[in-house]
Design a protein that fits this description.
single chain, five-stranded mixed sheet, 4 helices, Transcription Regulator spoIIAA, 112 residues, 7 strands, alpha/beta
Length: 112
């Protein structure tokens, strides 16, 4: 899984570059996100705007990431396309994750 990242005002902004977050890419995604958390990044804006498809293992990896940050940080998912957002709504994960329309909205939510 290819990721782009930058740090803005102590907020890690991670952008997924690939079009799918599924069983094939999820282990690499988990590994890279765990490296960020281990390095001390605990406020994360996750830009999933390129993602066109997410399966249950992809959603599971996002839940695991949120649990890993629980109590020590925060995660805002941003840029979800309509098709991906429908998966979040179908599974009610849109009630679990803080969702933002774009990176600036995510950064604003994390800055509070």
């Amino acid at each position: 899984m290819e990721l782009e990242h930058r740090v803005d005002d102590d907020i890690l902004v991670v952008r997924l570059v690939e079009k799918r977050l599924d069983a094939r890419s999820v282990s690499s995604f988990r590994e890279k996100m765990n490296e960020f958390i281990t390095a001390g990044y605990h406020r994360i804006a996750l830009d999933i705007s390129p993602i066109e498809f997410v399966d249950s293992s992809g959603l599971g990896a996002l839940v695991a990431l949120l649990k890993r940050l629980s109590g020590q940080g925060d995660l805002v998912v941003c840029g979800a396309r309509e098709t991906v957002m429908s998966m979040f709504k179908l599974t009610r994960l849109d009630k679990v994750f803080h969702m933002a329309t774009g990176v600036e909205g995510a950064r604003a939510a994390l800055a509070k």
